[in-house]
Amino acid sequence: MKRSVLTRYRVMAYVTAVMLLVLCTCMVFKYGFDKGEDVTFAVSQVHGFLYIIYLIFAFDLGSKAKWSFGKLLWVLLSGTIPFAAFFVERKVTRQVEPLVGGPVPAVAKA
After folding, report:
1. Which of 107, 93, 72 has the alpha carbon at shortest distance from 5?
2. Radius of gyration of the chain (CA)
3. pTM for the complete prediction?
4. In the chain, N or C terminus with fewer CB closer than 10 Å?
5. Which residue spans traverse the membrane (predicted)?
């Protein structure tokens, strides 16, 4: 498996997790303080689009890593639970690293 498959997943896991936290904050302001309805709408649209990209990359990684259906489902759903994607991403990275040839080599000094 290529390292780029894992890297794409990791980037989208972090982006999706951060956007979900931003969306949760917007929802608190919208429903708790009756402020920011337009911002909440925009953030929800962006998060939804990015979550679809996350699903594609997570599914790609899961199919190449030959995950069970249950594990794949948990990874896919972790993008909908605040803070979960951060923890799931770390666990997935530790498990998939051996499949991509170990950690990234250090840059050689010139």
Report:
1. 93
2. 16
3. 0.81
4. C
5. 12-33, 39-57, 69-88
